Amino acid sequence: MLSTKNLSSNIVLGQLYALWLREIKVFLRERSRLVASTFTPLLWLSVIGSGLGSTNLQIGTDYEKFIFPGIICMSVIFTSVFFGSYIIWDRKFDFLKSVMVAPSSRTTVFVGKTLGGMTTSLFQVAIVLVLGIALGINYDALSLLQILSIVLILSFCLTSLGLTFGSYIESLEGFQLIISFVVFPLFFLSGALFPIDNLPAWLKLITLIDPATYSVDALRNSILNLGTYSFEYDLAVLLLFTFIITIIGILSFRRMKAV
Amino acid sequence: MITVKNLVKKYADFKALDDLSFEVNENEIFGLLGPNGAGKTTLIHILATLLKPTEGGAIVNGFDVLHNANKVRQSIGVVFQAPSSDDILTGYENLKVHALLYGIPRKLREKRISEVLELVGLGDRKNDQVKKYSGGMRRRLEIARGLLHHPKVFFLDEPTLGLDPKSRETMWKYIKKIVREEKVTIILTTHYMEEADMLCDRIGFITNGRIIALDSPSKLKQEIGGDIVKITFSDRVPLDKDFTKFDFVHKVERKENSVIIYMEKVNSNLHMLIKDLDDVQTIEYKKPTLNDVFLKLSGDYLSGDSPEGGFMQRYAQYKKS
């Protein structure tokens, strides 16, 4: 059955579709996740946005608007890293074992997962974008295209990161470590909530090794015209991070114990 | 169909599998029996390409598990100890996902999914989420899933663990049906002796990572040396009685106040045996079961006490000591 190249690439596509389909069905049936993913950004925009916004910051726009690109990235960070590290659950409940005994390569499984992560991120971001209209944010075709590409790349990058950590961690308790040591630092150090221009040197240095920093900046460029760097620079650095993390992710995934 | 050669699996200093060699023939149901931790699941994981052996190797359906893992994976179906279906998906969706993973062509897919669903009697529940299935139904769905791609070898790792007696019997019925209709070689692990006795053509007893006996259930039971009689005395076993003087007695085990005698034709010979015995409290007699075979074989490790008593209790004692 795998004798010709054409057939076997069809099979890989089918396998990717299978893994993606499973993730999407699970996501759509878990209503609590959908509710949480609408409510959390709303909470940030309204409470933190209005709360800190009332303190007269020098940022060139309303604080709610200033953090809006950051909240888009927050949605992507939480969704993607969690999504990747759900591999710990898959392994615990033996679903992964049943995938591993099928004739699919681990790279296929890895990519299937990241496709799932990208799709769920898109769902979440679509909801945030609608909330943005209520804040008085205007989109045009170009900014929507830019948002779409940044969101997809960042989510690919961070799902890979989640899968990387997930492939090393064996206990469910390790999930908490990922939240504390990966998810929150990625978010807080991304400049989502404050401008990174005038930070102390040590803090600035850390923000520079956070891929989310460049995503927030890119989105701030395209939505508010307020970036620290240019959109192209942000995009290039983000792609570099994504490339490196994906390679590390695939290697970690291949050496992961199946049982 | 399967050749295992000098297989060793070490975890640090612990040898899970210790120089294991055996063969499984085509279209037989091969049972792997042994206590928890004996190495059964480790062996299945190696044969299913999920674990790499430390030394030695295995050939499944003509393919090396180390160097031709993908070919092996196409040849096998596996049902794991814990149900591994996604319980948020429906039974049908689980099968569809796996049909795609195995690259079953679109034209055959739907037909094959209906076939395996019928085979395990889940046709009318296929659109229910798996979380609404009972334990037995989940296990049957796993079987259906494992058979989707017409595997040559089918691994069942404790397929009836945790099922109630009725579900267990249903499961046995389906396993027999699969062999008849799908023409697969089955490797089944269990620690229910009656299950192995009923289903398996041949049985390998595995303890501490070694196979200590391998034969058909009836041959194994013959080897134990006929029927088993246990005579309990109200006081100590009389020391002057020599039971071995009878031709029909194969073996005698003396305990504090009882004696276990392995002998032929209890019906006609028992009266000779007990003719001049005093103080007899009870006489128990039974045909040997696989349980007895196991206890006899593993006598080195287990403190044998009486011919009856569940294997699990023995194992518990063994763990304590």
Biggest sheet of chain B: strands, sense, closure? Answer: 6 strands, mixed
Biggest chain-to-chain interface with counts:
A-B, 29 and 29 residues
Number of helices, where a helix is a run of at least 4 consecutive DSSP H or I residues of chain B: 11
Name the CATH class of the largest domain in chain B.
Alpha Beta
Give the class of chain B from helix and strand content and strand pairing.
alpha/beta
As for the number of domains of chain A, it is: 1
Uncertain ranges of chain B: 300-317
Broad shape of chain A = globular
Average pLDDT taken over every residue of chain B: 85
Order of helices and strands of chain A: HHHHHHHHHHH
* Rounded average pLDDT of chain A: 90
Helix/strand/pairing category of chain A:
mainly alpha
Distance between the termini of chain B: 39 Å
CATH fold field value of the largest domain in chain B? Rossmann fold
The assembly state of the depicted protein chains is: heterodimer
Radius of gyration of chain B: 23 Å
Query: How do the strands of the widest beta sheet of chain B line up side by side?
Result: 6-7-8-3-9-10
| Counted beta strands of chain A | 0
Protein topology:
The complex is a heterodimer of chains A (259) and B (321).
Chain A: H1 5-29, H2 31-53, H3 63-85, H4 87-92, H5 95-100, H6 106-134, H7 141-168, H8 174-188, H9 201-208, H10 211-224, H11 231-255
Chain B: E1 2-11, E2 14-24, E3 29-33, H1 40-47, E4 55-60, E5 63-64, H2 69-75, E6 76-79, H3 91-101, H4 106-119, H5 135-147, E7 153-157, H6 165-182, E8 185-190, H7 193-199, E9 202-207, E10 210-215, H8 217-223, E11 227-233, E12 249-254, E13 258-263, H9 266-274, E14 280-286, H10 290-297, H11 311-320
Parallel strand pairs in B: 3-8, 3-9, 6-7, 7-8
Antiparallel strand pairs in B: 1-2, 1-4, 4-5, 9-10, 11-13, 11-14, 12-13
Helix pairs in contact in B: 3-4, 4-5, 5-6
